[in-house]
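forwarding from the other thread:

> can someone predict this with flavin-adenine dinucleotide?

sure thing
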Amino acid sequence: MNKPYVVLLGSSYDPQRVVASAAKLCYSSSDISALVEKQTEEKTAAFIEMLADMGHESPIEHASFTFGIEHVSRALLAQITRHRIASFSVQSQRYVKAKQFEYVTPPRIAANAEALSVYSSFMEEAQKTYDKLAALLAEDELAAVDSALPEEERRKKAEKAVLEDARFVLPNAAATKMVLTMNARSLLNFFRHRCCNRAQWEIRSLADQMLKLCREAAPQIFKNAGPSCLCKACPEGKMSCGKMPEVREKYKNLLV
Ligand SMILES: Cc1cc2nc3c(=O)[nH]c(=O)nc-3n(C[C@H](O)[C@H](O)[C@H](O)COP(=O)(O)OP(=O)(O)OC[C@H]3O[C@@H](n4cnc5c(N)ncnc54)[C@H](O)[C@@H]3O)c2cc1C
């Protein structure tokens, strides 16, 4: 599978109401419970739109969203974990053996039969090398494992211990999975960077899917979310894709 798989595992309870209440508090003399009670759905929606227009972003930090993400490459992992205002739990290559490692195939490679054949052969070879290294290192490691343990348990311990080194031969293409939590403000920043046509195709595809899920869960918060050029001139200068009208049309209509 080449497309990232992403699911919204959870979010703050009633995220838009939480955000609207937090923002309202900044401008009101009422106490918090009264403010929350007064928040009808319509008032919440209108207030959040006003916040977005004003650029008052800090209240949206009170809403967070948790995603389950699968079928993405370690290359994507290196990029997504650069976003510091986020929490990650990532499947470990130290503790989980790559019995038959899954990998992501870039569309350019998938579209070229010869390139695809070279690519697939390399992945098979990587798996064989990983298995061979794991077996060789496990033999050495066995001597360091408590000899009082039953033989089967000793072997398992030795095999587990060496995965952290065998994994060095697994490529950037190797698939991984993670659970990711970001607050809405950090998500807006993530979408500005990663929905842009300058972002790499895999993380852009993931960002698009995450944005669809966010718009479904909190439509007003994410109404104007997407690449920077949705709401202002493209900041990419000479590197601009020059396709602003198409990009704006795409994100205006991006829904699940
Ligand atoms: C198209 C593209 C190409 C890229 N190419 C490269 C590359 O070649 N090499 C490379 O290393 N990275 C590259 N990056 C990654 C990029 O530089 C950022 O690290 C990444 O996008 C995370 O963005 P962020 O810092 O805004 O997000 P976060 O880390 O989530 O931070 C969010 C915001 O918080 C604030 N913030 C966070 N930490 C600090 C801090 N310590 N000090 C001050 N303010 C802070 C900033 O306002 C920041 O925008 C690329 C990103 C993109 C989209």
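Strands lie at 5-11, 64-73, 87-90, 175-183. thats all i got for now
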